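Recap for those who missed Tuesday's class. We walked through two folding examples back to back. For each one, the amino acid string is listed first and its predicted structure tokens come directly after. Nothing is annotated here on purpose, so try labeling regions yourself before you check the end of the notes.
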Amino acid sequence: MENKKKNPVATIILAIISILWMYPIVLILINSLKKESAITTSGVFSIPNKETWNGLSNFVASVTQMDFLKSFWYSLIISVMSVVLILLCCSMCAWYIVRVNGKLSKLFYYLCVFSMVVPFQMVMFTLAKTADTLKLNSPYSICIIYLGFGAGLAVFMFTGFVKGIPLEIEEAALIDGCSPLQVYFQILIPILKPTIISTAILELMWVWNDYLLPTLVLDIKQYRTIPMAVQYFRGSFGHVQMGPMMASIMIDIIPIIIVYLVCQKYIIEGVVAGAVKG
């Protein structure tokens, strides 16, 4: 009975927190539908009316200006390639760490975990020079850099989950004639599916919204991701095109929201499975 009395209070608190989290997105959506003058005169908090309504004009302007579609393509390529590389390499690495369980593998695991606490600002200038030297300064090779920075979290998550997988399953597959690669792709990957999706969403949100790393590594004039392109919606003397900028931010947000909504059930399964096995 006591738990039932607390449930409405918890629901109200979580509802308030959800509204606070959603409010900035709603605010951006409202301003993306208003005229440029209405955003600066009537204020960013006002709801569009007949005089301030601008329809989808801001979205059209955001797509046609600054090669926004090209920036969207670069963001998509970088995000997909980086996430796939992180998931593949880090899941294999976690599998090796858990099954070998030697001093060297444990040292490598602790190094991966330690990399999560190293501030990016400490290595960004050296990283930019190294990227230029190794020719990693293109949208098709920057995924290797993202692999290095995203490996810490991914290895940590995969290692915790692989520890809960019985070794007998893999031994039975090996006895039946499977090779290590067959065991990995046909046995381990299906079991790791909830964790793979959970890790993929976390890494995707980071790579998709990242501004600093592409700015340091890529050629700004030739390659621009969406976060890089958004800042160019400004004219002379510091004038900012607020309408197209808000619309471009909404276009940037929508793919991540869709991916999260589609994969939400798998995230919950991953958390529950990790809790049961832990």
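Example two. Treat it independently of the first, because the proteins are unrelated.
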Amino acid sequence: MQKIGKYEFIAEPFHCDFSGRMFLGHLGNQMLNAADFHSTDRGFGMKYLMTINRSWVLSRLAIEVNEMPTQYEHFTIETWVESAMRFFTSRNFCVTNGNGHICGYGRSIWAMIDTETRQPTDIYSIDNAAIKNWIVDDRPCPIEKGGRVRMSVNVELVKTIQVTYNDIDINGHVNSVKYIEHVLDLWDIAWYGKHRLKRFEIAYVAESHYGDLLDFYLEQTAESEYCVRLAKTEVPTGNQVEVCRCKLLFVQ
């Protein structure tokens, strides 16, 4: 079995926007699918981890695209483990279309948690640190790693939503991709008619759950660059806890 996994997908029409190109959220979701296929085939995937009360949790994700797959287009996602430490592992992605043209790349960082305590757990404890056997150190990923998203203290509150049924995944918290979709909804369809999302990065800080109220704070930090902070309002105290931060770069 090769260290680099390669998986084929299709851009289904209902996963595409008004321009006929895939939503970024769905591309991100297929990257996560590829990660699951790759880890499952090699013995450290979710299917096995759930039997021992363990689970992978996405900590950071950065996606940079030159072009999105179009509806009905077949595309391929390659994924590989770049590094592994005791509590975190990094995984990269490369997206190519049917003609072999590179559409974009992704970088991600994952933690393994105990599903009962919700605390980080030792990745090396799984099958005698077998993940080390799958590290690829000779396949560079050309996009920048996700960095710290810096925002001002006083930032405009632009939206508040309540977490509902469709936001929740198998781990019982808001699905990683759902945050991406909610953030992208902060801009209207007219904006997307004139701008293309070049890069999206997100850093997850805390979990949110069914019924939580999520506040979205938006700040423009450079030309065509925006940062978003999500915080949940705890009930009944009313205290805010930061959930994640995002940085978006648009091009015209």
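Answers for example two:
The radius of gyration is 18 Å.
The helical segments are 24-41, 46-49, 176-184, 189-194.
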